[in-house]
Amino acid sequence: MKLSACIVIYNGFDEALKAAQTILQYTRRYPLTLYLVDNASPDGSGEKLRAAAASGALAAGAGQQVVLHCRTENGGFGTGHNMVLPELDSDFHFILNPDIQLTADTLSDLADWMAQHPDAVMARPSLVFPDGSPQQLPLRRCALRPMIYRQLPCLKFWAKYNDAYLMKDADLSKPTSIEFCTGSFSGVRTSTFRAVGGFDENYFMYVEDADLTQKMLTQGKAYLVPQYTAIHAWHRAAHRSLKPALWQAGNLMRYFKKWGFRW
Predict the structure, then answer these.
(1) pTM score of the predicted model
(2) Where are the domains of the chain?
(3) Which pLDDT belongs to residue 152?
(4) Fold of the domain built from segment(s) 3-259
(5) How far is 186 from 202, CA to CA, in rounded Å?
(6) Which residues form the Glycosyltransferase 2-like domain (predicted)?
């Protein structure tokens, strides 16, 4: 079995380097190609990653290779990940954020699990904060009320809709079919990812992972596989500043137009 993984970087060299190092350190069971795509970072992250690879700070082990692409313009999250689509020859591919860190061979574990479940075209592990506390991420299709509540948690009377978005009514201690696989850490069956054309590049940032999940679900199922875990810093920029929040709102409208409105 062959694995591949891609991290798209926009600034934040130190964090991206740590993510790449843990992926190379722990992914040992199967051959791995790790793609690093710098989205024209103004802080020089792309050149710093190139220097790290040359110096040995980003060293590939046996059966591994690191491929670095430095874009001349920032085309957004999906465009960055799609850049490697023509190069993929793996069985399973992993879409990873630069704020992910591994503490075990989670990529191989998820690949093995998906190989044993032919209906699985997409999967993710449990994600935790750096202090080990669990993260609650969306698992059901995007809907308007939980998205508003997540921006305005003062609307306590809508908390129940967010609970449904997080599937708090389900037993999430075992592998569970889901409708939303977060772009911070998604494993995909490479052949299916290619068949659906990767990400919709009309989404510059935010909601593109929800859109990709719906595309993948036309070909099979997506799963939360909670027995495997990774660290996710989860910076949540859309909850802290206006511009990302506006991007998210605009993309949510695009998503509803494409996949149907949910209140």
Answers:
(1) 0.94
(2) 3-259
(3) 84
(4) Spore Coat Polysaccharide Biosynthesis Protein SpsA; Chain A (3.90.550)
(5) 20
(6) 4-195
